[in-house]
Structures are given as structure tokens and as C-alpha cells.
Specification:
The protein has 200 residues and is α/β, with parallel strands linked by helices. It is built from 6 helices and 5 strands, in the order ββαβααββααα.
Length: 200
């Protein structure tokens, strides 16, 4: 099923999504994207449905074709201070704030959002598989975050962030048990599995 180009005809809409909410390490990233009202791309979809190569190709396409786009993030320290849900909202707010064009409406992926200034919004569950603008935001948030995790992996190769991007894989949790947490870890998250924290 093809994605939709807009929610409300005649309004300048920005699609918003985040990446990295379920990770144990690294920032949460968010993107806001305003696409032309008649935008169509056969490959563009929820970033989780795409390969890394497809996402990288689409990122170039989105940045070229978008009327406006912005990417922002919240650090692991901020996540620990205000919790991951609030940090996700704040990262989205920061991305919207960076847009040069003020959108008439926001399309938010998910079921919750904290209103941004006076701009109306719609929360759309699985919106990244329904609207092109949200799908585009999901691709940008994911690719920018993955790029960041690759960069910090160079300083901490033992956590294998190059492969797991900070997500709670078995190898990542075993590395935390062996080497401890570092400055990029979210200390408010349960970093170890119950079974990994028990010494026999």
C-alpha cells in the first residue's frame, strides 16, 4: 500500500519521528521533515522496514527534495534527568524549532506528544508506515543516529556499537557487565539482564 502525501490538503505539514528510544546508550534523535504536497517515492517507508543501504540512499533523496528538514537530539544525560519519553518530545521540539519554514500542522509518529507552541498536531500510531513525511523523518532520525553511534564506537569498540547501535543486544549487555557503563550509557535504564547480573 502506497503511503499518503498529506493528512490535510492545503496545509504545510511537518512529519516528526524519533530514533533510539529503546537503546541503552547514546542520544535519542528526532527529525522534522516538510515534503512537497505531491511528494511520492516508491521506496520510502518506515525506516525499520528498510535496509541500511536503502536508508542511506533515501536520506540523500529526502534532503534534496524536502522543502525543509531538521534533525536534533537529546543526550544520555538529559534522558537520565527528564526520562526517555520527555527527552523524545524535547528532541522533536528542537528539530521543529530548527525548521526555517513554520509548518501549519505537525504529524507525529506514535500516540503521545507534548504540544509545540501554537502549532496543531496529530498523533498517528505507526504513522511512519502511513505518511511520507513521517517516514522521511524516521529515515533521517535513524541515519543521523546510526552515524553518531559509529563515530563514538571508535572510542569504545568493546561495546560493539558499530553493530548494535546502542540497542540492548546480548553482546552489548555482556560488554556492560564486563567493562561497566561509560559516559554514553543511560544510567536510568536497566543496563543488565537479570541473568547477567547474577554471579554463580
Amino acid at each position: 500500500m502506497a503511503l499518503k502525501s498529506f493528512h490535510t490538503s492545503g496545509l504545510m505539514e511537518a512529519g516528526c519521528d524519533e530514533a533510539g528510544r529503546g537503546c541503552l546508550a547514546g542520544p535519542v534523535y528526532a527529525a522534522a521533515v516538510i515534503l512537497p504536497p505531491d511528494y511520492f517515492h516508491p521506496l520510502l517507508n518506515d525506516s525499520k522496514q528498510l535496509s541500511e543501504k536503502q536508508r542511506d540512499i533515501l536520506r540523500i533523496e529526502i534532503e534534496k527534495e524536502a522543502l525543509d528538514f531538521a534533525v536534533a537530539w537529546c543526550s544520555a544525560k538529559e534522558i537520565d534527568e527528564i526520562n526517555i519519553l520527555n527527552a523524545s518530545f524535547l528532541a522533536m521540539h528542537r528539530a521543529i524549532e530548527k525548521l526555517k519554514i513554520k509548518p501549519g500542522q505537525l504529524l507525529i509518529d506514535g500516540n503521545r506528544f507534548r504540544p509545540y507552541k501554537d502549532i496543531p498536531h496529530h498523533c498517528i500510531i505507526k504513522g511512519d508506515g502511513i505518511y511520507f513525511s513521517i517516514a522521511a523523518a524516521s529515515v533521517l532520525a535513524k541515519t543521523y543516529r546510526d552515524e553518531f553511534m559509529l563515530k563514538i564506537d571508535a572510542g569504545f569498540p568493546e561495546y560493539k556499537w558499530k553493530n548494535n547501535k546502542g540497542y540492548p543486544t546480548k553482546a552489548h549487555r555482556e560488554a556492560i557487565k564486563k567493562y561497566g557503563a561509560n559516559i554514553w550509557h543511560r544510567m536510568s535504564f536497566r543496563l543488565l539482564d537479570e541473568q547477567l547480573s547474577i554471579d554463580f
